[in-house]
Specification:
Layout (H helix, E strand, L loop, with lengths): L1 H23 L6 E2 L9 E2 L18 E2 L5 E2 L5 E4 L6 E3 L5 E3 L3 E9 L2 E2 L3 E6 L4 E4 L4 E6 L8 E10 L10 E8 L11 E4 L8 E3 L5 E8 L7 H4 L5 E8 L1 E2 L2 E2 L5 E10 L3
Parallel strand pairs: 2-10, 12-21
Antiparallel strand pairs: 1-3, 3-4, 5-8, 6-7, 8-9, 8-10, 11-13, 13-17, 14-16, 14-18, 15-17, 18-21, 19-20
Length: 263
């Protein structure tokens, strides 16, 4: 009899324990990502597109209790401002209606993202070169951290020459200078703070720029280092929208480089 009572008590305790675990289990994801935008801006008169020019919806990624991505359909998105610069269509596609900005939040289960402000801008149609081709005189140095710089800049404009803001512009070195060591380039594309980066987004006035940094101590051409030769850097810039390149051929910047031989 005592043995049966003990078994009953154990079974009851286990049942209660299981019920407790089940009752406290989360009904949705443990956490969610920030609201994910396919593009950093939205174009008036068009739906949002990703970097390839394909129509793309807003998304959120859900995570389970261990931090792994989890399948959790049913994300919802809401526009919280009253500017009517954009609206949400089916399949979580954003549509741009007027210049300005819109504020969006996402929700999945009981979890909500932080608000995201998205600019709504003119449809980009062209790139216009602003900076002129130039000659960069780099001082001779043995310090590999010392650089000389030139700035290349352009404007991203609509067909009516209005600014298109927060449009992605890609910069590449079509021609560079020979380095002393293949693992350390002598020429680097960088942002205004000197951080290496080949991608920029246009400002509220449509402008975009990059610094071209030349490190004389990393050059591998003895004639260039000795000041008896001038060499050339060529930087190309390109942007696209809806799978159409905005400049054909790409915008080209030519920078002649010579090294001051004074030591």
């Amino acid at each position: 009899m005592i043995h049966r009572v003990l078994i009953s008590v154990v079974v009851l305790a286990v049942a209660l324990g299981l019920a407790c675990v089940d009752m406290s289990a989360p009904k949705g994801p443990a956490s969610i990502s920030n609201l994910r935008l396919p593009s950093p801006s939205l174009i008036v008169g068009d739906s949002m597109r990703d970097s390839t020019g394909t129509l793309a919806p807003l998304t959120i990624t859900a995570f389970d209790a261990t931090g792994n991505p989890a399948v959790a359909p049913g994300a919802q998105f809401f526009i919280t401002d009253t500017t009517k610069a954009a609206t949400l269509a089916l399949n979580n596609l954003l549509i741009g209606h007027r210049l300005g900005s819109t504020i969006i939040i996402g929700q999945l289960g009981n979890l909500q993202t932080s608000p995201v402000t998205l600019p709504v801008t003119n449809r980009p149609a062209k790139l216009v070169k602003v900076s002129s081709d130039t000659t960069l005189v780099a001082p001779f140095t043995v310090d590999t951290a010392v650089s000389a710089k030139a700035v290349v800049s352009l404007n991203v404009l609509s067909a009516q020459d209005s600014a298109s803001q927060v449009i992605i512009v890609r910069y590449t070195l079509a021609r560079t200078l020979s380095p002393r060591n293949a693992s350390r380039p002598a020429v680097v594309i960088a942002d205004a703070n000197g951080k290496a980066g080949t991608v920029d987004t246009s400002s509220s006035t449509g402008s975009s720029s990059r610094q071209i940094l030349v490190f004389p101590a990393l050059l591998g051409d003895a004639a260039l280092l000795g000041g008896t030769k001038t060499d050339t850097i060529i930087v190309e810039a390109q942007a696209s929208y809806a799978k159409v390149e905005l400049a054909n051929p790409p915008i080209r910047f030519i920078i002649a480089v010579r090294v001051s031989a004074s030591q």
